[in-house]
Automatic annotation (TrEMBL), chain A:
Family: Belongs to the complex I subunit 4L family.
Chief localization: membrane
Gene Ontology cellular-component annotations: NADH dehydrogenase complex; plasma membrane
Transmembrane segment boundaries: 27-45, 57-80
Originating gene: nuoK
Catalytic activity as recorded in UniProt: a quinone + NADH + 5 H(+)(in) = a quinol + NAD(+) + 4 H(+)(out)
Protein name per its UniProtKB record: NADH-quinone oxidoreductase subunit K
Domain of life: Bacteria
The organism of origin for this protein: Calidithermus terrae
Physiological role: NDH-1 shuttles electrons from NADH, via FMN and iron-sulfur (Fe-S) centers, to quinones in the respiratory chain. The immediate electron acceptor for the enzyme in this species is believed to be a menaquinone. Couples the redox reaction to proton translocation (for every two electrons transferred, four hydrogen ions are translocated across the cytoplasmic membrane), and thus conserves the redox energy in a proton gradient.
Membrane-topology descriptor: Multi-pass membrane protein
InterPro entries: NADH_UbQ_OxRdtase_chain4L/K, NUOK/Mnh_C1-like
Subunit structure, as described in the record: NDH-1 is composed of 15 different subunits. Subunits NuoA, H, J, K, L, M, N constitute the membrane sector of the complex.
GO biological process, one term: ATP synthesis coupled electron transport
Annotated EC: 7.1.1.-
Length: 96, 477, 619, 184
C-alpha cells in the first residue's frame, strides 16, 4: 500500500519534470520516470492481489518503453540535424 | 430470372466503369455510353419485371454485426421509377455532353451513388450513398467549373455538410430511441420514434433533406452551383438528379418520425408554397439560362414538396412523379442549353437572338422541353404537378392557390427566355442538330411524351406506396 | 352510346397530321401539306358525324392517373362542337392553302393548324376534366405557336407570349376548380360528377353548396381566360398578330368558344347556383359593352372583327348566365359561321391588297372583289343581326331569355346589339364602299379561298333556322336536341304577345342601327366625323387604356420586384455566409490556444488528467 | 514499513527530484540510473525478481545508457538551453504536480486488498513463463510486442539515416498540392 503512495509521488515528480524541462532529452527522461512509477504501482498491486498477470504487464511496459526510447531518441537526433537544437520551445509546427 | 442480381449489377456497374474510365481515359466516350446504356437497360429490365409481378425487389446481407448494419437494397415502385429516371438521364448526359473524358467517369461514379440513394433499404447505407454522391459532384464542379468554381463548390459543400451532421445524429437517434433491432428500413418503420424525440429526429433529417430538395431558404447554394458548373450541362444534369430531398422525406424522414413530421407540417407547407412562388418570380429576372433553370427547378420542387407534405396519397404520388419527370426534362434542358452554349459561346439571355431561323429542329426540341417544364398537359411535367395540386388542395387551399400561381410565372419566365434566344430578328447563324443530337432529341422527346400521355405506367406502381404513407399519416386517399 | 375505339380516332387523325407534317412536311411540295391537313380534318368531321348519327359514343381508359380516367364522350353537345370545330376548321384549312401560298413556313403552319384542331377536339370530347384540361392547354399552346408564327418580328412573339400567359391565369382557375371538385367528390369524371351533383336534373340534397359555388366560380375563371372576358380580355386583340386563317380559327372554330362550351358542359354545376350565374351575366354584359365600344375606334381590319368577337362572347356568357345553355351553344354555332366568314373575307381583302391591314387605306373594294364583297356583306349583316339571317335568330333568343332574367339585362344587351349593327356597318363601309384610298392593284382571291367562303355564306344566311323561337309555328330542332344532354331548369315560355314584341323590337333596332351605321360611317370614310366621336375613337383605339393600366399596375411592378428579389436572393446566401463567419471567428479564438508549445499542451493534459481523476475518485 | 523500505522510498524520491531539477543532463541521467536500481531492489522485496532483473538490464543497463550516448552525441549536457518561452509555466507545473500527487494518492489509498492474496512464487521465471507463453494468456500479446520492437528498430535506423532527411523547403503544404491538382 505504501508503495502505491510512493509511486503516485514519483509519477507527479515526473509530470513536473515534463512541464519544467526545456530540452527534449530531459523531457524524455522525465517521461521514463513516470513510466517507472506506473510499473511500481503495477508490481505493488501484484503483491497485494497475488496476481502474476500484473508482473507480465510490467514486462510488456518495459519492452514497449524500450521501443519508444529507440524511436524517440531517433526523432530527437533527426530533429537536431535539421534544427541544430534540442529545445522543445523552438519546435512550434503545431501552432494553429 | 434472378432480378436481385440485376439490381446489384446495375448499382455497381457505373462505379466500376467510372473507375476504369478515370484510370484509362483512352477507353473513350463509347465505353461510358455503353456502361450507362447497360445500366439503363438493367433498370428497364427490372421495371418490366416488376410490371409482371406487381412487387418490388429486396435483398439484404449483414455487413457490420455489432451495430446490425446491413447491405440491404430494396426497390419498390418508387425506387424503380427513379432508377429509370436516373439511369436514363445519365445515359442522355453521357451521350451528348462535350466534356473531358475523365468527367464522364465522375458522372458514372455519381450515378452509382444516386442509384444507391434510391435503392438503399438500410439507413446507414442510405447515409453512405447520400454523402458519397457529394464527392463526384464536388469534384466535377471543382475540376471543370467556371471562374468562381471554388467559391461555388465551397458553398455547396458547406450547405450539404451542415445538413449532414444533424442527419447523422438523427440516423442513430432514430434507431436507438425508437428501439429498432437494426437499421433496416422495415425495422425502423415498425418502431418509429415518438414524443419530443420525434421532433428532434425529424429536425435532424429536415435540415439535410431540405438542402437537397431544395426548400426555401436552403436553396441558396443552387444558383451558383449551376451557374459555375461546366457549360456542357453534364454536371448540371447530374446535379439535378442529386435533388433527392423529396424522395428522402418520403422514404425516411416522414415514416420514421411521423409525429415529428406532424409538428412541422404547417411550416413545411408554408415554406414549400413560398419557395415555389418566390423562385418562379426570381427566375423572371435571371439573366442567364442556367440560373433560370436553377430557379425554375426550385420552384417546381416547391410545388412537389407542397404535394408531398400535404400527406394525401394523390399529393404524394404527384410529388414523386414530378420528381422523376423533372429529373429527365430539367436534365435534358441543361444538356440542350449546353449544346446551345457551345454554338453561341454564351449562356446569357439577350446577346444572341433569332437562332430558330438557322436551327429549327433545335428550337423545336427546346420548345418541347420548356413546355414540359412549365407543365403542359400531355407532357411529363403535368401529371405530377396536377396530382400534387389535387393533394395539396385538401391540405391547404390558400397555400395551394399561392404556390400554383407559379405555373403562371413559369410560362412567363420560360417563354420570355425562349423568345429572346430563338425568336425575333436573327443576329447569328448557328448549325442545326447533328445526327448525334437528333438521337438525343428523339429519345428525350419520346420519353417526355410517353410519360406525359401514359402516366399510368408509373402511377400504378407508385400510388399504392403513397397510399400506405397517407394511411400512416392518417390522411385519406 | 357505344364503346368504340373510333372515338379517339377523331382526335388522332389531326394529331397524326401534326406529327407527320412536323417531321416530314418540309420535304413535301407546296400544296401537299395543306391537302393532307385538310383531308385529315375532314376525316375527323365525317367520323364525328357518323358516330353522332349512330347515337353517340364513348371510350375510356381506367386509372389514367390514380382515380382519374382518360375518357371521351360524344353526345349531342360535344357532337355539335365537333361539327363546328372540324367542319368550320376544315373550311379554314382549305382557305389557308390559298392564303399561305408561298410562305416559307407552309408545312409548319399546317402542322400547327392540325395540332390546334386536335387539341380543341380533345377539349370538346373529354369526359373527364383533366382530359378537357389537356385540350384546354393544348389550344393555348397551339395558339401560342400560331400567333407567333412569324416570330422574326418581335411584336408577334410578344403577342403570342401574352396570349399564353394571360390564358394561364385562367388555367390556374381551372386547375384549382378541379382541386375543389376532387376534394369534395373524389372524382373528376364529368359524367360521374353530374350523377353526384345533379341526378335526374335536380340538385342532389346534402351537397356542400359553398364548395360547389367555389368550384363553379373557379372553373368560370378558367372560362374567362380562354374566352377573353373582362378582365382577361387583353390577349385577344393582340392575337391578330398571327396570319388571318389563325384568327379565323381562334375566333370561330376553336379556343374562345371553349369557355362557353365549358360552362354548358358543366351546366349541372351552374344551373342552380344563382350567385355564380349572376357573376357570369355581369361579366358577360361588361365584356359585351366593352368589346362593342372598342370596335368603333380600330383602324386594323382584323382588330375590328376581333373586338366584335369579344362582344359576341359577352352575349354567349350572358346566355349561359341566365340559364339558357342551348342558346349559348346556338350563338356559338351561328357566330362560328359569320365570324369565320368575316375573318376570311378580311383575309381576302388583305390578300388582295398585298398585306395591307389598315382600313384607312382601303375602301371601294365593292368594285374590285366581286365575290368577296358578297361574303363581306352577308357576314356584316349577320353580325349586325339583320332579321332572318343566322345572327338575328341566336341574338334574339339571347335577348328573349335575358328579358325573362331581368329587363335591365335585356335593355343593356339590346343597346349592345344596336352597337353591333353600327360597327359591323362601319367595317363594311370603310372596306367596301366609297373610293379606294390606297395604291395597290386589288385582285380577287383564287377559288381555293373563295369556295370555303361560299359555304360559310350559306351557313351565315340559313344556320339560324335550326333554332327558331316557338312563336313562329315551325319546329325548333336545336333546343330539344341539346337539352337532352344539358342539365338546366325548364323555362316558362313567354306569352306569345310579349315574345312577338321582343322579336319585333330587336328586329327594328337591328334594321335601324344598320341603316344609321351605313349612313354615319360614310362620313368617316370621307373624314367628316363629329369632334366628340373622334375623341371617343381615340380612346377606343387604345382599348380604353386597358393595356396601359395593366402594364403600370401589374406587369411593371412584378418585373421590378423580380429584379429586387433576384439580387436579394444573393443576400440569403450572404446571410448564410455571415453565419459561417461567426463560427469562423469563434474558431479563431479557440485557435489562439494552439500556441505550438509542446509544454503548454502537456500542461493542459496534466490539468485535464487531474480533473478527470478527481471526478473518478469523487464518484 | 521497515527501515530499509523507508530508506528506499526516500532514495527514490530524492533521485527523482534530481532527475527533474539537475542542471546537467548527465547528472540527471545518472540519477535516473540510481532511481531504477533502487526500484529494482524494491521489486525484489515485492516478490518480482524476474521483473527486477529485467529492470536492471533493460532500463538501467540499456535505455538510460542510450540516453547518455545521445546526450554526448549532441553535446546537450546543458539543461537550460535557449530562452524559456513559457516562464509562467513553472508555477502551474508545481501546482499541477502537487494536485496530481494529491488525487493519485487519494485514489490509490481507496483500494482494499483481498484478505488472502495468492502467492507469487517469488516472481521467478518458472512462474511467469507459463503465463507468458500460453496461448490462453499472453502469448499473442508477446508476439505483437516482439513485432513492435522489430518495427521500432527499423524505424530508428530509417529516422537517422542521413539521406532520408530532406531539406525543409522541398516539402509542400497539403493546401498547395490541392491547388495544383485543381489547376491541372
Amino acid at each position: 500500500m505504501s508503495w502505491l503512495v510512493v509511486s503516485a509521488l514519483l509519477f507527479a515528480i515526473g509530470a513536473y519534470g515534463v512541464l519544467s524541462r526545456r530540452t527534449a532529452i530531459l523531457v524524455f527522461l522525465s517521461i521514463e520516470l513516470m513510466l517507472n512509477a506506473a510499473n511500481l504501482a503495477l508490481i505493488a498491486f501484484a503483491k497485494q492481489w497475488g496476481s502474476l498477470d500484473a508482473q507480465v504487464v510490467t514486462l510488456f511496459v518495459i519492452a514497449i518503453a524500450a521501443a519508444e526510447v529507440a524511436v524517440g531518441l531517433g526523432l530527437i537526433v533527426a530533429i537536431f540535424r535539421r534544427r541544430e537544437t534540442t529545445g522543445i520551445d523552438e519546435l512550434r509546427g503545431l501552432k494553429g | 430470372m434472378n432480378y436481385d442480381a440485376l439490381m446489384h449489377v446495375g448499382l455497381f456497374l457505373p462505379l466500376l466503369a467510372g473507375i476504369a474510365l478515370l484510370i484509362w481515359p483512352s477507353l473513350g466516350r463509347t465505353f461510358a455510353v455503353a456502361a450507362a446504356g447497360v445500366t439503363f437497360l438493367l433498370a428497364a429490365w427490372l421495371f418490366a419485371g416488376a410490371q409482371g409481378e406487381g412487387a418490388g425487389y429486396a435483398s439484404q446481407t449483414l455487413l457490420l454485426e455489432p451495430i446490425q448494419m446491413y447491405y440491404a437494397l430494396g426497390l419498390d415502385g418508387v425506387g424503380l421509377m427513379l432508377w429509370l429516371a436516373v439511369s436514363f438521364t445519365t445515359l442522355l448526359a453521357v451521350y451528348i455532353a462535350q466534356v473531358p473524358i475523365r468527367m464522364l467517369g465522375w458522372a458514372l461514379l455519381m450515378e452509382t451513388g444516386l442509384l444507391g440513394i434510391f435503392a438503399a433499404a438500410d439507413l446507414v447505407l442510405f447515409y453512405v450513398f447520400f454523402e458519397a454522391t457529394l464527392i463526384p459532384a464536388l469534384l466535377m464542379l471543382g475540376l471543370y467549373g467556371g471562374r468562381e468554381r471554388l467559391k461555388a463548390a465551397y458553398t455547396f459543400a458547406l450547405f450539404t455538410l451542415v445538413g449532414s451532421l444533424p442527419m447523422l445524429a438523427a440516423v442513430f437517434a432514430v434507431r436507438y430511441l425508437g428501439g429498432a433491432p437494426s437499421f433496416l428500413h422495415a425495422d425502423l418503420a415498425a418502431n418509429p420514434v415518438s414524443g419530443a424525440a420525434a421532433t428532434w429526429v425529424f429536425l435532424g433529417f429536415l435540415v439535410a433533406f431540405a438542402v437537397k430538395t431544395p426548400l426555401f431558404p436552403l436553396h441558396a447554394w443552387l444558383p451558383s452551383f449551376h451557374a459555375e458548373n461546366h457549360p456542357s450541362g453534364l454536371a448540371d444534369a447530374m446535379g439535378t438528379l442529386y435533388k433527392v430531398g423529396l424522395f428522402a422525406f418520403f422514404k425516411w424522414a416522414i415514416p420514421l418520425a411521423p409525429e415529428g413530421f406532424a409538428q412541422f407540417q404547417g411550416l413545411l407547407l408554408l415554406l414549400a408554397a413560398f419557395g415555389a412562388i418566390y423562385a418562379a418570380w426570381l427566375a423572371f429576372a435571371a439573366r442567364d439560362w442556367k440560373r433560370l433553370l436553377a430557379y425554375g427547378g426550385v420552384s417546381h420542387m416547391g410545388l412537389g414538396a407542397l404535394g408531398l407534405f400535404s400527406g394525401h396519397a394523390d399529393g404524394v404520388t404527384g410529388a414523386l412523379f414530378l420528381l422523376a419527370a423533372s429529373m429527365v426534362y430539367t436534365g435534358g434542358l441543361f444538356l440542350v442549353v449546353g449544346r446551345i452554349a457551345e454554338r453561341t459561346e454564351t449562356l446569357e439571355i439577350g446577346p444572341v437572338r433569332g437562332i430558330a431561323k438557322s436551327a429549327p429542329a433545335l428550337s423545336v426540341l427546346t420548345m418541347f422541353l420548356v413546355m414540359a417544364m412549365i407543365g403542359l398537359p400531355g407532357l411529363s411535367g403535368f401529371p405530377g404537378e396536377f396530382m400534387a395540386l389535387l393533394g395539396a388542395w385538401k391540405a391547404s387551399p390558400w397555400l395551394t392557390f399561392v404556390a400554383f400561381t407559379a405555373v403562371i410565372a413559369a410560362a412567363a419566365y420560360a417563354l420570355t427566355a425562349y423568345q429572346a434566344l430563338f425568336q425575333e430578328s436573327p443576329n447569328r447563324t448557328v448549325p442545326d442538330l447533328t445526327p448525334r443530337e437528333w438521337v438525343f432529341g428523339v429519345a428525350v422527346v419520346a420519353s417526355t411524351l410517353l410519360v406525359g400521355l401514359y402516366p399510368k405506367m408509373f402511377t400504378e406502381l407508385i400510388h399504392p406506396v403513397s397510399e400506405a404513407l397517407a394511411k400512416l399519416l392518417g390522411g385519406g386517399a | 352510346m357505344q364503346e368504340t375505339i373510333l372515338l379517339p380516332l377523331i382526335i388522332l387523325l389531326p394529331l397524326l397530321g401534326f406529327a407527320v407534317l412536323g417531321l416530314w412536311g418540309k420535304r413535301m411540295q407546296e400544296p401537299t401539306p395543306g391537302i393532307v391537313a385538310s383531308a385529315l380534318v375532314l376525316g375527323s368531321f365525317v367520323l364525328g358525324v357518323v358516330l353522332l348519327a349512330q347515337g353517340g359514343a364513348r371510350w375510356g381508359l381506367e386509372d389514367w392517373l390514380p382515380g382519374i380516367p382518360l375518357s371521351f364522350a360524344l353526345d349531342n353537345l360535344s357532337g355539335l362542337m365537333v361539327m363546328i370545330v372540324a367542319g368550320i376548321g376544315f373550311l379554314i384549312h382549305v382557305y389557308a392553302i390559298g392564303y399561305m401560298h408561298g410562305d416559307a413556313g407552309f408545312s409548319r403552319f399546317f402542322s400547327y393548324f392540325n395540332l390546334f384542331i386536335a387539341a380543341m377536339l380533345v377539349l370538346v370530347l373529354g369526359d373527364s376534366l383533366p382530359v378537357v384540361f389537356v385540350g384546354w392547354e393544348g389550344v393555348g399552346l397551339a395558339s401560342y405557336l400560331l400567333i407567333g408564327f412569324w416570330y422574326a418580328d418581335r411584336v408577334n412573339g410578344d403577342s403570342a407570349r401574352k396570349a399564353f400567359i394571360v390564358n394561364r391565369i385562367g388555367d390556374l382557375g381551372f386547375l384549382l376548380g378541379m382541386g375543389v371538385l376532387w376534394a369534395n367528390f373524389g372524382t373528376l369524371s364529368i359524367s360521374e360528377l353530374r350523377e353526384a351533383i345533379a341526378p335526374e336534373g335536380e340538385l342532389a340534397v346534402g351537397l356542400n353548396n359553398a364548395a360547389l359555388a367555389l368550384a363553379a366560380f373557379l372553373l368560370f375563371v378558367g372560362a374567362i381566360g380562354k374566352s377573353a372576358q373582362v378582365p382577361l380580355m387583353v390577349w385577344l386583340p393582340d392575337a391578330m398578330a398571327g396570319p388571318t386563317p389563325v384568327s379565323a380559327l381562334i375566333h370561330a372554330a376553336t379556343m374562345v368558344t371553349a369557355g362557353v362550351y365549358l360552362l354548358c358542359r358543366n351546366s349541372f354545376l351552374y344551373f342552380d347556383l344563382p350567385d355564380v350565374s349572376f357573376w357570369i351575366v355581369l361579366i358577360g354584359m361588361i365584356t359585351a359593352v366593352y368589346g362593342a365600344l372598342c370596335a368603333f375606334g380600330q383602324t386594323d381590319i382584323k382588330r375590328i372583327v376581333a373586338y366584335s368577337t369579344l362582344s359576341q362572347l359577352g352575349f354567349m356568357f350572358v346566355a349561359a348566365g341566365v340559364g339558357a345553355y342551348w342558346v349559348a351553344m346556338f350563338h356559338v354555332m351561328t357566330h362560328a359561321f359569320f365570324k369565320a366568314l368575316l375573318f376570311m373575307s378580311s383575309g381576302s381583302v388583305i390578300h388582295a391588297l398585298g398585306g395591307e391591314q389598315d382600313v384607312r387605306k382601303m375602301g371601294g373594294m365593292w368594285n374590285y372583289l366581286p365575290q368577296t364583297r358578297i361574303h363581306g356583306l352577308v357576314g356584316a349583316l349577320a353580325l349586325g343581326g339583320l332579321p332572318l339571317l343566322s345572327g338575328f335568330w341566336s341574338k334574339d333568343a339571347i335577348l328573349a331569355y335575358s328579358y325573362e332574367y331581368s329587363p335591365v339585362v335585356w335593355f343593356v344587351m339590346l343597346l349592345v346589339a344596336a352597337m353591333t349593327a353600327l360597327y359591323s356597318m362601319r367595317w363594311f363601309v370603310l372596306v367596301f364602299l366609297g373610293k379606294y384610298r390606297g395604291h395597290e392593284h386589288p385582285h380577287e382571291s383564287p377559288s381555293v379561298m373563295t369556295w370555303p367562303n361560299h359555304v360559310l355564306t350559306l351557313g351565315s344566311l340559313f344556320a339560324g333556322f335550326v333554332g327558331l323561337p316557338y312563336v313562329i309555328q315551325y319546329k325548333n330542332f336545336l333546343e330539344p336536341w341539346l337539352n337532352k344532354v344539358i342539365v338546366h331548369h325548364e323555362h316558362e315560355k313567354l306569352p306569345v304577345l310579349e315574345e312577338w314584341t321582343l322579336i319585333l323590337v330587336s328586329a327594328a333596332v337591328a334594321v335601324g342601327a344598320l341603316y344609321y351605321g351605313y349612313r354615319f360611317f360614310q362620313a368617316e370614310a370621307a373624314g367628316r366625323l363629329p369632334a366628340w366621336f373622334v375623341r371617343f375613337q381615340e380612346a377606343s383605339l387604345r382599348s380604353f387604356y386597358a393595356d396601359d393600366v395593366y402594364n403600370a399596375l401589374i406587369v411593371k411592378p412584378l418585373k421590378s420586384v423580380a429584379k429586387i428579389l433576384f439580387d436579394a436572393d444573393n443576400g440569403v446566401l450572404t446571410g448564410f455566409q455571415w453565419l459561417g463567419s461567426v463560427t469562423g471567428t469563434l474558431g479563431g479564438l479557440l485557435a489562439r490556444l494552439e500556441t505550438g508549445y509542446l509544454r503548454f499542451y502537456a500542461a493542459g493534459l496534466l490539468v485535464a488528467a487531474v480533473l478527470l481523476i478527481l471526478v473518478g475518485v469523487i464518484r | 514499513m521497515s527501515f530499509a523500505e523507508l530508506l528506499a522510498a526516500a532514495l527514490l524520491l530524492l533521485s527523482a527530484l534530481v532527475v527533474v531539477r539537475a542542471s546537467n543532463a548527465v547528472h540527471a541521467a545518472l540519477a535516473l540510473i540510481a532511481n531504477f536500481l533502487v526500484i529494482a531492489g524494491v521489486y525484489v522485496g515485492l516478490e518480482a525478481r524476474f521483473v527486477a532483473m529485467t529492470q536492471i538490464i533493460v532500463y538501467a543497463g540499456a535505455i538510460v545508457v542510450l540516453f547518455l550516448f545521445v546526450i554526448m552525441l549532441l553535446s546537450a549536457a546543458q539543461a537550460n538551453v535557449g530562452k524559456d518561452m513559457l516562464p509562467g509555466l513553472q508555477v502551474p507545473a508545481v501546482v499541477g504536480a502537487l494536485g496530481l500527487a494529491g488525487v493519485l494518492t487519494y485514489a490509490v489509498t481507496r483500494f482494499t486488498a483481498p484478505p488472502n492474496p495468492g502467492t507469487l512464487g517469488g516472481g521467478l521465471p518458472q512462474a511467469l513463463g507459463p503465463l507468458l507463453y500460453s496461448p490462453e494468456k499472453w502469448l499473442y500479446a508477446l508476439l505483437v510486442v516482439g513485432f513492435l520492437l522489430l518495427v521500432a528498430t527499423i524505424a530508428a535506423v530509417v529516422l537517422v539515416e542521413p539521406e532520408r532527411i530532406v531539406p525543409e523547403k522541398v516539402i509542400k503544404s497539403a493546401s498547395e498540392e490541392l491547388k495544383e491538382m485543381v489547376e491541372r
